[in-house]
């Protein structure tokens, strides 16, 4: 699949006809121009009074929280990134100025930024239809076609299977990467695309598979990992939401399940796990982005992954979930302020990972327990995996820290995925050897 077909999926299905080797003229804007004039504010509440005022201001409007995920998580001396619709931008400007709350606008026209996100592909050399481009974002259909092709062409290292179906009936595909072995090898699970709008996640999962297979012969570290471990890679966890974010709402986060009492759809797939379910950091209201669902594992996607992990938990030694954005590497606990029993080992693995990541482009990642490094959230996958016996569980928050937010340009796919691959290799390498507890903090993180 080339850049042409990836670009095609960004358009509303009825708006474009694809010609042979050429993208025909488009008769409608991306997403029907729905984000024109919308702005993303970056707000800095400095004290408790400003926090409360900000909650009151934003609580009376329909806004889309980027960081943190909801108004309830706003606290002093932290950054709040919020997407405000064009009809409300003037009112937000006026109120923030009136209350003397420090803020700025880091995306002044969201529609323009969405259109810029895929601008990189036009400057890249056109590739043949048979050469998959890992430096552009791909639709769900393209990713699934790529999975079938990888499975077909790499039978010695790849096995593709489905672990179930989504709410809307889409298959939940997983790739098993590694040298075939008679004995049961230790395993690492990696999922991407839990939150639909975080497109860099699925891009990373594809990149990691490409690197694993492509460097197997030349890279002794990768060869050792694939010989001694199995990697279970799920490029798109939230298949329904991801598809919806390409066709209808670029900033959709949740699944697409229906609620019988409300018109709002979807559940936060990272608040739906059976570990301190629907407590702090999750919402019980179906219209909220952090909605925990009607009960734990209510979402077929979560239930399918949980079932698979439970079945193979004796072999799976590391669980890694890829998210965006914040440039962080997080580990349990998310739901409480407490130290995990094997803290030294996990902390050491995290430090090795961010050191490896830093070695690529000098990018600094913060790392630590999710509750203290990011915020408290209940029902998360890393807490569930850890509670179910997987000793190393991590959530990456990839680039960036807010300049692009969820609209990370395609030109940054390669460096982002390259550095993250180094970090994941470091974690996987740690699975193969005995833990060496951390002694000193990483000096520049």
UniProtKB/TrEMBL annotation:
Residues 136-431 form the Peptidase M14 domain. GO terms for molecular function: metallocarboxypeptidase activity; zinc ion binding. Keywords: Carboxypeptidase, Disulfide bond, Hydrolase, Metal-binding, Metalloprotease, Protease, Signal, Zinc. InterPro entries: CARBOXYPEPT_ZN_1, CARBOXYPEPT_ZN_2, M14A-like_propep, M14A_act_pep, Peptidase_M14. Coiled coil: none annotated. Pfam families: Peptidase_M14, Propep_M14. Its cofactor is Zn(2+). The active site is at 397 (proton donor/acceptor). Gene3D superfamilies: Metallocarboxypeptidase-like (3.30.70.340), Zn peptidases (3.40.630.10). One of its GO terms (cellular component) is extracellular space. GO terms for biological process: proteolysis. Belongs to the peptidase M14 family. This is Carboxypeptidase A6.
């Amino acid at each position: 699949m080339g850049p042409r077909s990836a670009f095609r999926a960004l358009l509303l299905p009825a708006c474009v006809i694809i010609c042979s080797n050429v993208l025909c003229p488009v008769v409608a804007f991306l997403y029907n121009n729905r984000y024109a004039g919308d702005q993303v504010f970056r707000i800095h509440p400095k004290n408790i009074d400003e926090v409360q005022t900000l909650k009151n201001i934003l609580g009376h409007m329909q806004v889309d929280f980027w960081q943190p995920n909801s108004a309830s998580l706003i606290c002093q001396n932290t950054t709040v990134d919020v997407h405000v619709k064009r009809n409300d931008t003037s009112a937000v400007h006026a109120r923030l100025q009136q209350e003397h709350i420090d803020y700025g606008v880091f995306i002044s026209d969201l529609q323009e930024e969405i259109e810029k996100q895929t601008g990189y592909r036009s400057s890249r050399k056109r590739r043949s239809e048979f050469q998959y481009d890992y430096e552009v974002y791909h639709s769900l259909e393209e990713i699934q076609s790529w999975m079938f092709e990888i499975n077909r062409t790499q039978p010695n290292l790849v096995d593709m299977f489905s672990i179930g179906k989504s709410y809307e009936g889409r298959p939940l595909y997983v790739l098993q990467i590694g040298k075939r072995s008679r004995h049961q090898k230790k395993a690492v699970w990696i999922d991407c695309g839990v939150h639909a709008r975080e497109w860099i996640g699925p891009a990373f999962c594809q990149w990691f598979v490409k690197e694993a297979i492509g460097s197997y012969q030349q890279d002794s570290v990768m060869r050792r990992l694939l010989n001694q471990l199995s990697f279970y890679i799920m490029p798109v966890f939230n298949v329904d939401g991801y598809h919806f974010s390409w066709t209808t709402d670029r900033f959709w986060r949740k699944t697409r399940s229906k609620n019988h009492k409300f018109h709002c759809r979807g559940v936060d797939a990272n608040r739906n796990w059976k570990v301190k379910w629907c407590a702090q950091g999750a919402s019980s209201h179906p219209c909220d982005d952090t909605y925990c669902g009607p009960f734990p594992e209510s979402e077929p996607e979560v239930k399918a992954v949980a079932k698979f992990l439970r079945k193979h938990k004796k072999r799976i030694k590391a669980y890694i979930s890829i998210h965006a954005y914040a440039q962080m590497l997080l580990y349990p606990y998310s739901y409480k302020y407490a130290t995990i029993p094997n803290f030294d080992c996990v902390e050491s693995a995290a430090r090795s990972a961010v050191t490896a990541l830093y070695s690529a482009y000098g990018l600094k990642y913060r790392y630590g327990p999710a509750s203290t490094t990011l915020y408290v959230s209940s029902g998360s996958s890393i807490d569930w995996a850890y509670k179910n016996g997987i000793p190393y569980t991590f959530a990456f928050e990839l680039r960036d820290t807010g300049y692009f937010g969820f609209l990370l340009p395609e030109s940054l796919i390669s460096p982002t995925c390259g550095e993250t691959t180094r970090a994941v290799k470091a974690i996987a390498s740690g699975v193969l050897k005995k833990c060496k507890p951390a002694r000193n903090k990483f000096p520049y993180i």
